[in-house]
């Protein structure tokens, strides 16, 4: 069972809460305009599922790519024109780990929800001849203690709620397994839950299918909950979620209450079902039918972003609302290539982890700017949002919070984040990909393959596609990064993949030979 330093986490959370109450002004929401000026900014986190770094007409590479030319995301372009685009933003390589990192501020090696979750005490991992999965937190996260195989922590929305925010969950949750409290976003600090539950994908995107997989004999576990009013209607899931989100925003405006809208689309996760409103836009493009489906799903997601941006303007809150756009992992293997990146969702390569990130902060970001001097990772969202909400120095709280606030980057103050700052990924699992751990520091990235106990070293500055393994030719750099990665795994007490021959954990990366490898 992995209760990762519960007392430490509780201490960190208590400190956060104490600082919240000490530093947040006494917000009240009367009609007085001076009071309204003190209102903390609304935060709209627009979180897309399985969207690759190049699945957009907004170039995140140094130059537009073939995929940028295919896709149509005019509202992402509009958002990028208003704010800052991060070229080097990362998430975990798969859904649940990313979502738990943003909810807790912890790296995946610490929270140990290292693969996707669904049913209590059941895991998607399969045994391999050499290894089996680590003892990971396969039940996800919980806000209260006592549930086996969960990480127990106080989640981000609960802290924002304490800081006067109305916390709205809309779309995909995927925080905790069925039959555990964490399956319900209302147990994790959300005031409102629209359509979120344990599952990480929708049964169907179509209202005519009641958003259920029943029409293809799929399990009821995938039925999107809470949208019965749209059942039987010719409406796409993204549209239904957007309408519900707009209703929740407008109620917050009427109630003069700041909101945190966690707009976590099911799109563009499988099942791949075209949004017919956009299919004709690609009929003469030369794309395959599947590519047209995929492109229509992306454009459908983008329309939702545009509708929400319009809603902010219409309701007079555009100048007091922060918008953050991000994806939870790289494109899935069924998607068109992630060029120029190597790999896809679940892999340790950039195609699995590098994601789009755009931030529009009304009082901080300058129009159409780019952050290319620093990289950020999903657990940074936690302290970033707390700082945006008025909690100062959130990035310095406790050793249990791995993320760092990137608020200083929003107006170009890059000096506050160290370019060599190591960031980590940990996948001691056997689903889809062989297990691995990896670290990036500066331009360098080291991958430790658990099954073969081998190391791969890449220089991302001149080999973004990770084609040349430099582990043998750069032994000093390899040794240094192996030590950094090992220290992190030891410090976080990360569960390691188990060798079947010995029933012992695989060695740490600084314990394996990497030169003269055959
Ligand atoms: Ca995902």
Descriptive account of the structure:
With 518 residues, the chain is an alpha/beta fold. The chain folds into two domains: 383 residues, Alkaline Phosphatase, subunit A (3-Layer(aba) Sandwich), CATH 3.40.720.10; 78 residues, Arylsulfatase, C-terminal domain, CATH 3.30.1120.10. The strands form four sheets. Strands 1, 2, 6, 7, 8, 9, 10, 11 and 12 form a nine-stranded mixed sheet that branches. A four-stranded antiparallel sheet has the order 13-14-15-16, with helices on one face. A hairpin with a 4-residue loop joins strand 17 and strand 18. Helix 4 packs across helix 10 and helix 8 runs parallel beside helix 10. The N terminus is likely disordered. The structure holds calcium ion (CA). The site of calcium ion has 6 residues, from loops.
Brief sketch in words of this structure:
The chain has 518 residues and is α/β, with parallel strands linked by helices. It has helices at 6-23, 33-37, 66-70, 74-82, 95-104, 108-111, 156-162, 237-254, 276-279, 289-314, 350-353, 381-388, 407-410, 475-491; strands at 42-48, 84-90, 131-132, 141-142, 151-152, 166-171, 192-194, 259-264, 321-327, 354-360, 369-371, 376-377, 423-427, 436-441, 444-449, 454-459, 498-499, 504-505.
